[in-house]
Specification:
Blueprint: H1 45-66, E1 69-71, E2 77-79, H2 96-111, H3 118-131, E3 139-141, H4 143-154, E4 156-159, E5 162-164, E6 173-178, H5 183-186, E7 194-198, E8 201-202, H6 213-220, E9 227-234, E10 237-244, E11 246-249, E12 253-257, E13 262-267, H7 274-287, E14 292-296, H8 305-315, E15 319-326, E16 331-336, E17 345-349, H9 356-366, E18 370-374, E19 382-388, E20 394-403, E21 419-420, H10 425-432, H11 442-452
Parallel strand pairs: 13-14, 14-17, 17-18, 18-21
Antiparallel strand pairs: 1-2, 3-20, 4-11, 5-6, 6-7, 7-8, 7-9, 9-10, 12-13, 15-16, 15-20, 19-20
């Protein structure tokens, strides 16, 4: 993923000088201007002036030292006036948001009576700035969260190799998927097992020290080669299992043969290795005798453009595959060669098919290479990149826009399937947790019908 350095606007600061011909304040010439009375004989004005200046200096010294306080309409005390405006002055070089942050930080340093966690303050300020962009696809990633972010886009992490459900956690954290050949698989964990504790600390049982889901995840994961002990309930039988953590490669593409020489290929995301794994699945399916393919990108959150383009290039004939315009206004078009997969295809989509998943379906639809089955997709049309900061945190911000091969933007409208098929809320939940039986999956069954009907 490329990083782009931001460019901050520069402002020239001009200083407005004294108008030509006008005397400076309190100069001898000023006292001789019309309307100013002079007393040449007694010379008392310098004494009066000195007294006034001394009083003024004393007043301002006290004012700046102690400040003034007033009450707002809520009855709370607040600093008032310009006497306690901390931070650097707005001299024309400072942008409005910088000046405001400096002021707020100054007030906190001077008046706040509680303890201040500087790192937490910085995270909150950074998050607020990105939120202020009013772009739903841009977000801030703390240094603590950045490692998990990197894991998600590389389809790998260090852990034991299980996927858990967040449903009915009062009974325990249910395992809904065990990665093949993972430490959890080797320890005999299976779908339906309940994790009740980690290192003897209970999970969500209502006790004072019980772990929540986020803390459970952190404790189960750790350094490669280290071990963790979890308490598991298997069909009501409790046992403690000690598992050595390992690097887990997330399986993001799976496939299987269905009846009628149909292959079903599930693409979970378009992150690292998605193209390699998808093309391998297609070729394996063809070797197994597949005459048509159903791609499932439901609940697919998207991923890298180059992974998407590589898959589309394999599937589609010569022509444009993807159009984008970056933050400089530069337009680019990714093209396909004349080699393509000449086979009937269908794509399953739903509202949670995002970004690359939408453009995968859209490209196949525009080339009339596949029929689209399912629900209207969300409609995402901007692409982002993560830019790391000095403290290990990062911002993921929109840096450009993209369109379909024919130049159509999906923003706010998404893709309309060729065959609209809705699932119930219960069926959607079962589909998400990979427990919806294929015979009861109305969207999959419709795709099968379309591809097998003469």
């Amino acid at each position: 993923m490329e990083q782009n350095s931001g460019h901050q606007n520069e402002y020239e600061n001009g200083f407005e000088g004294q108008a030509s011909g006008q005397p400076a304040p309190y100069s001898p010439a000023a006292w001789t201007q019309p309307g100013v009375r002079t007393v040449p004989t007694t010379r008392i004005w310098p004494i009066i002036l000195a007294a006034l200046l001394a009083a003024l200096v004393t007043f301002w010294a006290c004012f700046l030292a102690f400040g003034t306080r007033g009450a707002d309409n809520t009855g709370n005390l607040k600093p008032s006036g310009q006497s306690v405006q901390p931070g650097k002055p707005d001299d024309g070089k400072t942008q409005a948001w910088e000046h405001k942050l400096d002021q707020i930080k100054g007030y906190i340093d001077r008046y706040f009576i509680g303890d201040v966690d500087e790192d937490k303050l910085a995270d909150a300020a950074a998050s607020g700035m990105i939120e202020g962009l009013d772009d739903e696809w841009s977000y801030y990633i703390s240094a603590e969260e950045y490692a998990s972010y990197v894991e998600s886009v590389t389809n790998s992490y260090v852990g034991i190799g299980v996927t858990i459900s967040i449903e009915n956690v009062e009974k325990g954290v249910e395992i809904v998927d065990v990665t093949p050949d993972s430490p959890a698989y080797g320890a005999g964990l299976v779908n339906g097992d309940l994790i009740l504790a980690v290192e003897g600390v209970p999970i969500l049982d209502g006790s004072e020290n019980a772990l929540d889901l986020n803390e459970t995840k952190k404790r189960v994961r750790g350094e490669e080669g280290s071990s963790v002990t979890i308490t598991v309930s298997h069909e009501g039988q409790l046992r403690d299992v000690t598992i050595v953590r390992a690097k887990i490669k997330t399986v993001n593409v799976t496939w299987e043969m269905l009846e009628n020489e149909l292959a079903y290929i599930h693409i979970r995301n378009f992150e690292q290795d998605a193209a390699k794994d998808t093309i391998a699945a297609i070729e394996a399916a063809r070797d197994a005798g597949a005459k048509a393919i159903i791609f499932d990108v439901r609940y697919n959150p998207g991923g890298y453009k180059h992974e998407l383009v590589e898959i589309l290039d394999y599937l589609l004939p010569e022509g444009p595959l993807f159009r984008s315009v970056d933050y400089t206004g530069r337009e680019s078009v990714d093209e396909s060669d004349d080699d393509y997969l000449d086979m009937p295809m269908a794509v399953l989509v739903n509202y949670d098919s995002y970004s690359a998943a939408e453009f995968f379906a859209a490209a196949l639809q525009e080339y009339e290479a596949a029929v689209i089955v399912g629900e209207q997709t969300y409609g995402k049309g901007r692409f982002q990149t993560a830019m790391t900061l000095d403290d290990g945190s990062a911002i993921n911000i929109s840096i450009g826009q993209y369109t379909t091969p024919k130049g159509v933007s999906l923003v706010g409208k998404g893709i309309t399937p060729d065959h609209v098929v809705e699932l119930t809320d219960e069926e959607k939940t079962d589909l998400y947790y990979n427990r919806l039986e294929k015979e009861k999956d109305a969207q999959l069954q419709k795709a099968i019908e379309v591809l097998t009907t003469p």
